UniProtKB/TrEMBL annotation:
Keyword Transmembrane helix recorded: yes
UniProt membrane topology term: Multi-pass membrane protein
Molecular function terms from GO: transmembrane transporter activity
Pfam families linked to this entry: MFS_3 (PF05977)
Subcellular location: Cell membrane
Key words, A-Z: Cell membrane, Membrane, Transmembrane, Transmembrane helix, Transport
CDD domains, per the entry: MFS_MefA_like
Organism, scientific name: Chromatocurvus halotolerans
GO cellular component, one term: plasma membrane
InterPro entries on file: MFS_dom (IPR020846), MFS_trans_sf (IPR036259), TM_effector (IPR010290)
Protein name (record): Putative MFS family arabinose efflux permease
Cell membrane as UniProt keyword: yes
Length: 419
């Protein structure tokens, strides 16, 4: 398939017009829901086992940290294999982790050390799953339908992030935790027949004869030399420092800025979730026009920066809730927009490695930003800290916007994979 120029990619095409994507979407709904259910159950088990917030945090960290370490490695793998086959392996591994947890509970072998090992295994499986999944999507849709596919994936992710834990809590009210883990395993297994039915081209471009270190260095060198990719990753970094950071700190924002309680936090969390779903819907209506997508990214970051600064002058649960909804929407629009731009712009032989870098930035920057913003909020208060973060985001976005021509000046070779 020949990739058209960005100027020709102005027609919106729904990803659901693609038969392969329709089947994948059903599978993705099950697997994403199962993933959030499994994460919730492991977190709940940590509390049930220890009644310690520290160990709950450790388990959460162990499920996340492998992504930062292993994603670049699995990005290389995704450049060498058929991504459909890779997802079959990662989905089976996640099903096995859930089933193994249920088995250890049934045999009375479940302990803190077992829980920590399971959390690491799930983190490793997730680190493999993400870049391989991102490499598969362009093989299921045409270029014009890519933003639609990414937008719908964001909707599934954000909906499952809310519904999965809620369903887990409901399951625990009627069945034992072992049966709940088994339900998660069955949901993962339910995706396998659909994945097997997908027929896509092999992604292999990276040389299997070269070492992982050489391939990783080549990917980093490509990202550094490709000015358009550098620009996309920079906008991803700003987005992580702004919107995602604020959302990660909603518990502190609710308590310190609004003097609220659990119900206040629930309202803000719901607002962020609704905003994220709306943001995914907006991106799902876009075409493969790179100039248009970049304008959305820049405009959204400017509005998001202003929204953070408005929290400083518009106190009150209703006002802050609306602003949090806007931030959730904008964060999703920027994140999915940057992912779409990276997918559209990257040479297919480096797709997995570049998207693994995007994943590390998208997931890792909020953790760093939350630490910095939390420290500043303790020292100077939440309102002025948010004002400073918003001002930083606004200035950084405007400076990078002056480099927007970089996106189109770099030659795009084999930017779209074969079907």
């Amino acid at each position: 398939m020949i990739a058209p120029d960005a100027s020709e990619s102005s027609r919106h095409r729904s990803a659901f017009a693609e038969p392969l994507y329709r089947r994948y979407f059903v599978s993705s709904c099950f697997s994403t829901f199962a993933g959030w259910l499994l994460r919730f159950l492991l977190g709940w088990s940590a509390w049930d086992l220890t009644e310690s917030a520290f160990w709950v945090g450790v388990v959460a960290s162990l499920m996340l940290l492998p992504t930062f370490v292993l994603s670049p490695i699995f990005g290389i793998v995704s450049d060498r294999i058929n991504p459909r086959n890779g997802l079959l392996v990662t989905l089976t591994c996640q099903a096995a982790i859930a089933a193994g947890t249920a088995l250890t509970l049934a045999l009375g072998l479940f302990s803190l050390s077992v829980l920590l090992c399971l959390a690491v295994l799930l983190g490793a499986a997730t680190a493999a799953h993400t870049p391989i999944r991102l490499a598969l999507i362009p093989r299921l849709v045409t270029r014009d339908a890519l933003p639609s596919a990414i937008g719908y994936s964001a909707i599934v992710f954000n909906t499952s992030r809310i519904v999965g834990p809620a369903a887990g809590a409901g399951l625990l009210a009627v069945v034992s935790v072992g049966w709940a883990f088994l339900a998660s395993s069955l949901l993962f297994l339910a995706t396998l027949p659909v994945m097997l039915s997908l027929r896509v081209g092999k992604a292999a471009h990276a040389s299997a004869s070269r070492s992982m270190g050489v391939e990783l260095a080549a990917g980093l060198r490509y990202a550094r030399q490709h000015r358009g990719i550098r620009l996309i990753l920079a906008f991803t970094l700003i987005n992580g420092m702004l919107g995602r950071t604020a959302i990660e700190l909603l518990p502190a924002l609710s308590g310190k800025l609004l003097r609220g309680d659990a119900s206040t936090l629930a309202i803000l969390t719901a607002c962020a979730g609704v905003g994220s779903i709306v943001g995914g819907l907006i991106i799902s209506r876009q075409s493969g026009n790179e100039t248009q997508l970049l304008s959305i990214v820049i405009g959204s970051l400017v509005v998001g920066s202003l929204a953070l600064m408005l929290i400083y002058v518009l106190p009150g649960t209703v006002a802050v809730g609306l602003l949090v909804m806007a931030v959730g929407m904008i964060t999703t629009m920027v994140g999915t927009g940057c992912q779409a731009l990276a997918q559209l712009r990257v040479d297919d032989s480096f797709r997995g490695r570049v998207l693994s870098l995007w994943t590390v930035l998208a997931m890792g920057t909020p953790a760093v930003g939350a630490f910095i913003l939390g420290a500043l909020a303790d020292a100077f208060g939440f309102a002025p800290s948010l004002l400073g973060f918003g001002l930083f985001g606004l200035l950084a976005t405007l400076l990078l916007a002056r480099k927007r021509r970089w996106l189109m000046q770099t030659e795009r070779r084999d930017a779209w994979p074969p079907g």
